[in-house]
């Protein structure tokens, strides 16, 4: 009886412990079951095979057993880590199904958890382990319940934040503003300074908490930016930030040039050439955007605007400002002011002055480390100087240069380089150079096809078709092959409106030349085929025979009183009030008036004739407003001796009920008493290869998207 009593007492004493042990086992069993369920979900994924499947099954099962059998591990720790295993698997499954991470990260993720579990068990930081694995693995580990109280968790999170910002530089500022006191912020500031120094500069003098951290960061580059941020002229130093950081320029050297625009521009050119060489060596200087921005501003303000405005002055007066510039300094002027520089400023000033200092064009490119050489070639082609430029270098160098010009067009983020190649080809008269470019295009086309590179195939296929079409002996039908509107003629029917009429809109400007051009125009249409109706601000000329046509032209009233602008506006308002949409638009004025005309482009315009100097360079703007327009423009000098006969003959062809056949028109004009030298610079639509390229590429991708 006594023994029975003792047994009962012992059982009562032990029962809580037994129940507790049973409860612990039950809790662990719960998480084992959860793990098993998550494993099954992972195995349903199509991507789970091979090493991924091995990790999801064998490695996880082994990890569960190791946790369960570890005699040194307390029950609560076993529960913590088993829960952690399930959290890892659940996070992995969710991320893979939502395309958050790659499936093949699982083996590394299991290894990372196992190592971090040991770190946690020994009360050690998980940071060294997190650093061994990819960012996505680290994010899952640091978000895991098992390590929520790890002594290295905050440092690991800061490290991952740094990695994230390094991969997503645009997020650095938002991250710093949100976490100014986070451990490792200094490393983010250092990274930020190398990616976006100007924004760091902007925050140096701000009231944000991050300003103090910037000023306290012990990094040479950040210290330079901090110094500049406290100076009123600090931004002027930014084009030279990388040179100052590397000790190639002193603060004093830059400071001495800041208040001297010419010295400042010269120093920027020297810096740009240094940077170009470093880029060629696959280095990336800091502050490139600042340098480009400041150089462009100074090139316009100090030089190009000046020689443009003096377009009526004698050359010795007009180009005096660029007399002392080196070939390199002259080289960058058209590069930086491509859309602003006048044809005469380039052809009579910048370009010839380069070759009064040097004789060989290949040495010019070497002097600038081939910086922006593709843009230089394009500009030279647009101004009909490419043949001359290539003749000034050794033939072997010219061949290498043009091959480099054609290669890699599919790797560019935009189509600009490809359009430049298309435009340039039409400007080259040297048959050997044209053949070289065509061969290189065909080589790249075959290479792209072999690599199944669709973008490359599309680009080089269009170029190949366009270039072959330039030789009529090839009998290439561009319209049929590329699916774009006819390029050798404009159908009469496409120019008519619902009332079976063709509406022509012509803009004149009120300077001396504008008045002379207007008088010529009135004389050309003073015959029985046309009826002239005058109003105070514009003239309306209507066909009396043949195709119904109406030409609206504003009068070139006094520009000094802005009366010509008022006349153009009133004429446009009148056309709008009658819902008359011009299908032909004509610009009759100098190149400095051209932008005003381009602002008046409409989608209805099917033919755009730009009678100014260098109008050819504005084709991109024309096509953005009129995607399928036929463009006629000069690469160099626009002249009434060409514009007048061209307009008269084209409109007469339409009045007679004929399609506007550009090839016939060009042949007719070439036989007339027209200034051949000037006429040769006018590009008909079928030779406007850049415009045709854009049309064809857009058409090709519209079909792909349908």
Number of strands: 10
Number of helical elements: 36
* Major sheet characteristics: 8 strands, mixed
Strand order of the largest sheet: 3-4-5-2-6-7-8-10
Protein model, in words:
There is one protein chain. The protein has three domains: 23-166, no CATH class; 297-482; 489-705. The protein is elongated, with a radius of gyration of 36 Å. The model is unreliable at 15-22 (pLDDT under 50). It is α/β, with parallel strands linked by helices and 706 residues long.
What is shown here, in short?
By secondary structure, the chain is of the alpha/beta class.
Please name the defining characteristics of this protein.
10 strands; 706 residues; 36 helices; alpha/beta; 3 domains; 8-stranded mixed β-sheet; single chain; elongated
Chain-wise SSE layout:
Elements: H1 2-43, H2 51-69, H3 75-97, H4 106-121, H5 127-130, H6 135-142, H7 153-167, H8 172-178, H9 185-195, H10 197-204, H11 209-216, H12 220-229, H13 241-245, H14 251-258, H15 261-280, H16 288-309, H17 315-318, H18 327-336, H19 343-357, H20 361-367, H21 373-382, H22 386-391, H23 395-406, H24 416-425, H25 431-450, H26 454-469, H27 478-482, E1 489-490, H28 492-495, E2 501-508, H29 512-524, E3 530-534, E4 538-543, E5 548-554, H30 563-577, E6 584-588, H31 594-598, E7 607-610, H32 619-625, E8 630-634, H33 640-655, E9 660-661, H34 662-671, H35 676-679, E10 682-683, H36 689-705
Parallel strand pairs: 2-5, 2-6, 6-7, 7-8
Antiparallel strand pairs: 1-9, 3-4, 4-5, 8-10
Helix pairs in contact: 1-2, 1-3, 2-3, 2-4, 3-4, 4-6, 6-7, 7-9, 9-10, 10-12, 15-16, 16-18, 18-19, 21-24, 23-25, 24-26, 24-36, 25-26, 26-36, 29-33
